[in-house]
Amino acid sequence: MRKIWSKDYELNELIEDFTVGQDYLLDARLVPADCAASAAHARMLSAIGILSRQELKDILQGLGEILELHKKGDFQISKSQEDCHTAIEAYLTARYGDAGKKIHTGRSRNDQVLAALRLFSKGWLHAFGELLGEVVRTLFDFGENYSQVPMPGRTHTQIAMPSSVGLWAASFGEEMLDLFRLLLAAYDLNDQCPLGSAAGYGVPLPLDREMVARELGFERVQNNVIYAADSRGKIESIILEVLDQITLTASRLAQDLVLFSLPEFGYFSLPRELCSGSSIMPQKKNPDALELVRAKSSTVSAACLQIKSILRSLPSGYNRDVQETKEPFFRGCDTAFQILKIIDLTVRNLEVNTEKLSGAFAPEIYATDAALELAGEGKSFREAYKQVGLNLEKLEQREPAASIGSRTSTGTAGNLNLNIPKAGLEKILGELKEKQRKTEKAIKKLFDFPVDLSPH
């Protein structure tokens, strides 16, 4: 099968294997997005007189056929075709002749893959955002359900001050919520249409870039055509930067769950169906999934670093190096999705051992409370601190629940104040849903049926 750029020679087989790599396999994920971008481009070409009405009709019909074949797993991309763009054009040309040969007018595979990745990312970020919203809700609900359950607060892993299970869980929920705001910012950066930039310098045709952006539901056109080309990999790395932060938080939560479910702590119990066993030790119930959350969070970091390392020393304009950013992008996205699903499943099924938690409140945990009480009676805090510190053996046991109830400042164990972050979560989810609705509506209009831009 001839390549889209074929001339009067055949490419060396070793060079072909090396340059194509796994790209033709990875591109199976971009077929729906590339079909959508091609449909919008075709409608614009018809509007400026390059495609006839019949040619446009044929192309749109052909793209619909490809989507159906892809959905059934019957649309194949060969190594010789190199990517989904060539495979789609080859199908249109075989079915509709000259109409298929015209579809590439005014564009390059550079802006094609940019557009496909942007559309894929919009769909993926929406799905991931919904999952992230569920995780935040799960943590907030868990925090509310156990807001009155005492839990020792720790610094340096040592007993520190009275806290609660609710405060602990809500802390991770609010951290994830802040990172959700970063995710929305990454979505906005991704939500600009690069089509019409071609190979990075535009073309001498009256392309209507704004029309294409509207047809695809993009918020705006990516204005500067060189910047459009140079943003290949950059936008993906920004998305991964946010995923790195999210999975970093998930890793720390996983570590807490591993630590606090140890028999020596016993604060929590992991259901046995979420744990695996040992090949030699019959008693083992291992938190393997949580351990892999810790490890796999570094996979997301590595994917992000890999992309930035590829881009770091490139001159402006397209360079083939950026092809190598696709695999780590997909890998990072897939890993982050898995991690959040594991976290959500674990927290939903976590057992809280209230007796163990309350029993861990040794008298020393009230040392700071005792010092503050003396300060409230008129002593300077530094004097009170010294007095308590020199008489730790005289500290008496207190009621753990009462100690957390006495903390009423905003965001403390006795006042989680979750109504505000919960409202913030719903606002972010609403914004994300509205953005995705715009994209889905635009693409459904192209084909008269919905298209899943980023199928898992």
Summarize, please.
Helix content is 61%, strand content 5%. With 456 residues, it is mainly alpha-helical. It has three domains: 13-105, Fumarase C, Chain B, domain 1 (Orthogonal Bundle), CATH 1.10.275.10; 110-199 and 222-358 and 417-447, Fumarase/aspartase (Central domain) (Fumarase C, Chain A, domain 2, Up-down Bundle), CATH 1.20.200; 362-397, no CATH class.
Could you explain the architecture of this structure?
This protein is mostly helical and 456 residues long. It is built from 18 helices and six strands. The chain has helices spanning 13-20, 23-26, 31-47, 53-72, 84-96, 98-102, 109-145, 165-190, 209-215, 225-230, 234-260, 288-311, 326-348, 354-359, 367-376, 381-389, 400-405, 419-447, and strands at residues 150-155, 158-164, 192-193, 220-221, 268-269, 351-352. The strands form three sheets. It has a two-stranded antiparallel sheet. It has a two-stranded parallel ribbon with strand order 3-4. The protein has a two-stranded antiparallel sheet with strand order 5-6. Strand 1 (150-155) and strand 2 form a beta hairpin. Helix 3 (31-47) crosses helix 7 (109-145) and helix 8 (165-190) packs antiparallel against helix 11. It is elongated.
